[in-house]
Design a protein that fits this description.
With 158 residues, this protein is an all-alpha fold. It has helices at 3-33, 35-72, 85-96, 103-106, 109-117, 119-157. It is 84% helix and 0% strand.
Amino acid sequence: MSSRNQILTASAIGFFAATALLTLYAVIIVAISGWAFAEQQFGATWYFVVSLALGFGIQVGLYAYLRQSITQRHAGGKVVAVSGTTSTTAMLACCAHYLANVAPLLGLAGAISLIGQYQQQLFWVGILFNLAGIAYLVWRLIQFNTHESHSAQLHSTI
């Protein structure tokens, strides 16, 4: 696969991941509180929600690109990527406190109240984890490319 095709494929995978995360967010909010509330909540927090989804999509895209590069070049080693769990958790935190309608049945009213109280802080933590995950994946990609470059130079001199 050419480098251009790798980039396009990884970008498509990242876009799909971001879209899937936004869809999950919307489905959960609509299921819990209805369409009108989902529109109101998204309107109030869209900048956090979209930032988290974009960060997640970028992480997934970078991971897909790195994995394709490793597979294509038959390089060994394990690549550890920051998962999107933090992004998902932070996005869901924005609507979790609205589970209070059914929480007494589940015994979770206190936890949901606590999450709702720190909603904005959880968004910021999610964004920081996204940035750290992106930085880590970029660093790993640079390391991989540097290693490949040195290997190619070594083989050309032999």
